[in-house]
Design brief:
Length: 126
């Protein structure tokens, strides 16, 4: 696990900045080191570090627990869900209207054909 940490880009950059800037005297790498260090301190100061547990409880043998996700109730997500429901309803209404129109057209065509066939058969038979 420690081997992987050494190969991360942030670790490599910080190490290069420390060696070349602080210990080597290169002003550009020293600025990079300062920015990286300030960023890490700010993350730790404002709580971007390790997440804190929400609930801790001892589990006895034979007990079980359920881990569930509560959906977000942000305004944006509610609006997005409502919009997708409306879109699906419109699509379903449009599809049913199209199917009804197609069925009506088909029955009209059958009715027209039914009225035309006897007239033709009478004229050909006589």
């Amino acid at each position: 696990m420690a081997g992987r940490r050494k190969l991360k880009p942030g670790v490599l950059l910080r190490r290069k900045a420390l060696r070349s800037g602080v210990l080597g005297g290169d002003s550009k790498w020293f600025r990079v080191f300062l920015v990286i260090t300030a960023w890490r301190k700010a993350k730790g100061l404002f709580g971007f570090g390790d997440p804190e547990p929400v609930y801790v409880h001892d589990v006895e043998p034979g007990q079980s627990f359920v881990i569930a996700h509560q959906p977000s109730t942000s305004r944006r997500k509610r609006r997005k869900a409502r919009k997708s429901e409306n879109k699906a309803a419109k699509k379903a209404d449009k599809a049913s209207a199209k199917a009804t129109k197609k069925a009506q057209k088909k029955t009209d065509k059958r009715n027209k054909k039914a009225t035309k066939i006897p007239a033709k058969s009478r004229s050909t038979s006589t």
